[in-house]
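Quick one, probably user error.
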C-alpha cells in the first residue's frame, strides 16, 4: 500500500515541498506519495483528528497553522514549544509529536554554505516565527551572541526575553531599530539572518528594509542570508552584495528543513541532491 505524507496549509498551491519529497521517494524507490492539503483554519482540528484514521505517515505544517497545531498534538518537542511553531508531525509510540525542523534546517544550510556558527556573532532581522526558529537553531549550533532587531522594538525585546532560557550559552540582546544602533551591531556581526517577510516577492517594504540595513558596517568576511527564497535574489541580498558581502539565499534552509523531516519520518538519509534539484526546477 502506498504510504501517504503531506503538508497542511492554507493556501498551499505555492508549496515546493510536494515536488521535493516526491522526488526523494522516487529516487529511493519508496512506495509513498506526498500530498498538499489545503486546510482552512477552522478545519485544522478535524484535519489533525484525521491523521490516524487516514493512516497518514507524517506531515509538514505551514502558514497559518504552525502555532495553532500545538495544542492539537499529543506532544511537542521542547525547541518547537519554545519557538512556538511546529512544521513537522511524526508518530512515536502511538503519539502524534510536533517538531520544528526550520531551526536545525537553517544551521545545516549555513554549515553547508561554509559559514562558521561556533562562537559566531549573529544579527537576526525580524521577530516572527522564522526569527524565533533562527535564534533557537543558531543557539543550538553554538553561536555566542545573537542580536535581534525588528521594526517594532517591543517584539524584539519580547523574543529575547522569551527565548533566552531556550538559548542556553548564547547571549541574546535586542537592538533598537535605528540606523546607528543597527550599524554598531552589524560591525560586530559575522552573519546577518534576514527573517522578515518583507522580501517575499520583494513586496512594498522590501526596498525600504534593504535601505535600512547598514551592510557597509559589516566586517569584510560577514555573510548575509535571506530566509525568503521567492525571489531567490531578494532586494536585501542585492544590497548586501552591492556592499561587497557574501549573500546566501533561503533555498538551502528549505531543503534542509525538508530533509530533516524526511529523515525523522523514514529513518534514512534524505537524497539531498535530487531534492535540491526538485526545488530548483
Ligand atoms: P511572520 O509573519 O511570523 O513574521 C514576519 C516578520 O516580518 C515580523 O517580525 C514582521 O514585523 C516582519 N516584517 C514584515 N514586513 C516587514 C517590513 N516591511 N519591514 C520590517 N519587518 C517586516 O512570518 P515568518 O517569520 O513565519 O516568516 C518570515 C519569512 O521567512 C517568510 O516570508 C518565509 O518566506 C520565510 N521562511 C523561510 C523558510 C525557509 O525554509 N527558507 C522557513 C520559514 C520561513 P511586524 O510584526 O512588525 O509586522
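Nope, works fine. Designed sequence:
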Amino acid at each position: 500500500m502506498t504510504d501517504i505524507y503531506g503538508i497542511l496549509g492554507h493556501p498551499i498551491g505555492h508549496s515546493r515541498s510536494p515536488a521535493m519529497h516526491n522526488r526523494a521517494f522516487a529516487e529511493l524507490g519508496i512506495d509513498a506519495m506526498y500530498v498538499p492539503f489545503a486546510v482552512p483554519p477552522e478545519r485544522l482540528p478535524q484535519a489533525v483528528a484525521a491523521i490516524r484514521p487516514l493512516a497518514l505517515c507524517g506531515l509538514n505544517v505551514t502558514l497559518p497553522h504552525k502555532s495553532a497545531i500545538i495544542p492539537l498534538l499529543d506532544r511537542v518537542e521542547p525547541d518547537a514549544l519554545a519557538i512556538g511553531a511546529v512544521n513537522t508531525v511524526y508518530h512515536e509510540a502511538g503519539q502524534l509529536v510536533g517538531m520544528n525542523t526550520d531551526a536545525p534546517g537553517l544551521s545545516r544550510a549555513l554549515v553547508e554554505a561554509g559559514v562558521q556558527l561556533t562562537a559566531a556573532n549573529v544579527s537576526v532581522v525580524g521577530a516572527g516565527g522564522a526569527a524565533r526558529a533562527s535564534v533557537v537553531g543558531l543557539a543550538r549550533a553554538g553561536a555566542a551572541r545573537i542580536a535581534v532587531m525588528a521594526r517594532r522594538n517591543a517584539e524584539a525585546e519580547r523574543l529575547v526575553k522569551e527565548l533566552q532560557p531556550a538559548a542556553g550559552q548564547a547571549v541574546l540582546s535586542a537592538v533598537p531599530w535605528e540606523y546607528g544602533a543597527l550599524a554598531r551591531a552589524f560591525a560586530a556581526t559575522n552573519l546577518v539572518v534576514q527573517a522578515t517577510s518583507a522580501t517575499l516577492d520583494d513586496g512594498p517594504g522590501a526596498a525600504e528594509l534593504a535601505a535600512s540595513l547598514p551592510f557597509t558596517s559589516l566586517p569584510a568576511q560577514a555573510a548575509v542570508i535571506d530566509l525568503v527564497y521567492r525571489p531567490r535574489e531578494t532586494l536585501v541580498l542585492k544590497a548586501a552584495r552591492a556592499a561587497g558581502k557574501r549573500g546566501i539565499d533561503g533555498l538551502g534552509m528549505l531543503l534542509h528543513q525538508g530533509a530533516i523531516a524526511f529523515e525523522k519520518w523514514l529513518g534514512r538519509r534524505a537524497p539531498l541532491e535530487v531534492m535540491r534539484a526538485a526545488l530548483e526546477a
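The two ends are 29 Å apart (CA to CA).
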